[in-house]
Amino acid sequence: MGGVKVGAGAAVSIQSMTKVETSNVSAVVSQIKRLKNAGCEIIRVAVKTQVDARAIKDIKKKIDIPLVADIHFDYRLALESIKSGADKIRLNPGNLKNRGEVEQVAKAAGKAGIPIRIGINSGSIFTNDERRLSAEAKKAKAEMTNDARIDTFVKSAMRYVKHFEELGFHDIIISLKGSNVSETVEAYKKISGLCDYPLHLGVTASGPYDTGIVKSSIGIGALLLDGIGDTIRVSLTADPVEEVVAAKRILSSLGLRRFGPEIISCPTCGRCQVDLQHIVEELDNKLSTINYELSTKAPITVAVMGCEVNGPGEAREADIGIAFGRGSGMLFKKGKVVKKVTAKDAVKELLAVIASPATI
Amino acid sequence: MGGVKVGAGAAVSIQSMTKVETSNVSAVVSQIKRLKNAGCEIIRVAVKTQVDARAIKDIKKKIDIPLVADIHFDYRLALESIKSGADKIRLNPGNLKNRGEVEQVAKAAGKAGIPIRIGINSGSIFTNDERRLSAEAKKAKAEMTNDARIDTFVKSAMRYVKHFEELGFHDIIISLKGSNVSETVEAYKKISGLCDYPLHLGVTASGPYDTGIVKSSIGIGALLLDGIGDTIRVSLTADPVEEVVAAKRILSSLGLRRFGPEIISCPTCGRCQVDLQHIVEELDNKLSTINYELSTKAPITVAVMGCEVNGPGEAREADIGIAFGRGSGMLFKKGKVVKKVTAKDAVKELLAVIASPATI
After folding, report:
1. Which residue of A has its CA nearest to B240?
2. From A192, A230, A296, B315, which residue has the greatest number of CB atoms within 10 Å?
3. According to the model, what pLDDT value does residue A294 have?
4. What span, in angstroms and rounded, lies between the C-alpha atoms of A37 and A31?
């Protein structure tokens, strides 16, 4: 899709979504450039009017990552977005009026050779169904068990998948985002057993930054640990750059991608004789300003440990590390003690090694 | 243990560890009080000298949550901590000199009626074994596959468990913390299939705050999702209060405990016509200053959504919620639209409902 491979063993890719009006081309482009610099590989824009759909043409000229048009309610917005050169359409088929509208979008996407994401959210799937429900059915739904809710969620997605298959359209990716972490994980696990299409992972409406990070890490992380998921979007009520940074942290925590050295540092305790928190924060800040993708030989794990309990072990296992004792520490390179360093010089010494990977 | 039940279906409890010298009683007590106020239910202190061990007596007089003595290298520190009234001993049996020392600690703990945590860390387990390894064995270890590493880790813990059982000591809790998330999760999954003792979950040396939160959320969260884990400790190279706050977020994200209303908010996109990020941040800040454990009738989910796509659905499913449209929003209580509110008044209106749960 627009040069980025999703699924079939490709690296798990990182997505985000712009948070300014899509018709404001300069604002959208500037946000996409910030996001791309942060590591975003696929960008989605909300298309709520024909003006938005036409703006995609101008946006596409100024960016170099694939663009996904996010469509709800009006299938004509999808058709216009495809005309404008969108690289993928995200559709919630349940909020289109009928199967005929879905069919027109599938036909246009097929002709353009672009994929469609069937993107179901817990917050809308039940709302869509709601319209067609009687008062009794609504009451029954309110009393549904969690398992029944998850089943409804998954069945709804599979019904749409089947519809696309009947139309001869197979260039599908699926998402099943719930605002509840456990339901989201269960839903993805279920659908991954029912079909082989790539899955776009995310926990929707995950809340403000600090809780959103936790919910997204658990939901996306637990699925990736189980080998489920091909592309991820962390949703945060925050600057979208934070979503991309969090996504990178999730992928590197699991060893699925590597974006720079990983810091292994202990929480410290009454044993620690140096201001480890300060040292680690300084190192973290310095490292985040360097683009490590340039140097593939750079060390990938840097341990900074506060005492003799786990310090020597972690420092020895890391590519480079310092295990502190009383006031000073031992610098390790690839498991071997190199020299004694003071707490004051620790960051400088580590950065020097990182800058000259040949010395490791 | 000291009034807190761990395991056998008890609520998953939250632990942390002090980060000041244990012999500095006033500093330790003041940190424990801050941690308890934040939600910490079990506290651990590092015992690295006999002075530390004796300080436990004075600390215990001034706190009202159970205290765990963290012991490494010297079994006599465990004996002295038990004498001082420690409510539990954390031991890494691998770094004691021999089985006789372990036996003395088990005997004293049994007599005092307190449990022992067999706490193995990836950073120390291999270091301990290292001492006894030949150069060839070291090389073999360095070339171990991940699976073999995890096996060694789990087998090592089970060997210690068996030793305690042979001594007739069964008041055991186990931890198997690795600095690598996937290995940690695999190790806990394996051991949970091998024995029925309660498990203390954590990812060790997880790094600075922002990455530590991600690693701990994935590791601890994935295990809890699988029904594994009885007590948790989030390790962060940061203020220990952050560890407790993160632990509460993990547990409430999974619906395992509830510490206050949960905010469901969308990430916003080009559809959103209000400054949702600001509204959510203000609401989050206000909510965090109120102790919601006092009012069990307070709403538990508060949705704040930016547009008509998922907004009405999430707002309707939450106990209370606002779904914004163009400039204003609809306030929902228990699924029913109550009134129109402006973006400016949104936080005030939500807080008013939260403060008077009877009106919902």
Report:
1. A267
2. B315
3. 40
4. 10
